[in-house]
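quick one, 293 residues, struct below
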Amino acid sequence: MSAVSTTVAVLGASGVYGRHLLPRVSARGWKVRALVRRPEAAVALAACGAEICRADIFDPASLRTALRGCAVAVNLATDLPMPEEAGDYAANDRLRREGVPLWLDACREAGVERVLQQSVGLVHAGAGAAWADESTFLSPDPGTVTGRAIAATLDMEASVRGSGLDWIILRGAYFYGPGTGVEESWFARAREGRLRMPGDGKDYLSLVHVADMAAATVLAIERWPSRRALIVADDGPAQAGTILEHAARLVGGAPPQPGGRGFGVSFRLDNARAREYLGWTPLYPDYRSGLVR
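---
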């Protein structure tokens, strides 16, 4: 996509994903409009050249105003608990089911033709040691928090596909890297002897460094593989226990002890289509290259 006169709107721009994405979008020569609930907390985004606009996914009028004149709209808005919290995902499920349709309506009404929606590779979870690609789906268990989150995500994706807009969906693996708090939580608990093995540790966990996710998003905007959902994950998913044992070794902490809450699912994601359609290669191909103490 040509950078000339192109304005890219990013909802949820002040989150960690957005903070990695916006400088990269700006560096490509596109105009960037950051849609945030609290403009006073977005000073760092303005410093990278972004125009700051107040908007809330549950406030259609604010969305329409902020989206006018934009060629592409990127939705990164989430309402997730912090990595160290065990909280449920009801607020995030509501955002996906109720907020995203409002966002899509606002995009249509504001004349935005292209939308890029953040989604999660969790929708491919449950396949054990088998590799999963974009065609692999298992029925979510409505009796679990994870199952309900997967169902809400699939509903969100259906809204995007049925919007009548030109869309891309990027299904990210489990984020880590600066600002996410993920590895910091692992390191701290290992130092204190509180790191717990999730279940038996044998479920696979696909990771993606947040910088690699941002880089893939820029390439998606640039190349625009229309109406495709793509997995964005690193090259080396590993068993969760192996990843946590490595994190503990990095800080000289105690290895993970039995008794942790299992992830409840296993997902081993194949990133071949993102490589093909985006020309993307992860800078951090596995947890060993990306986890830094």
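The chain has a mean pLDDT of 93.
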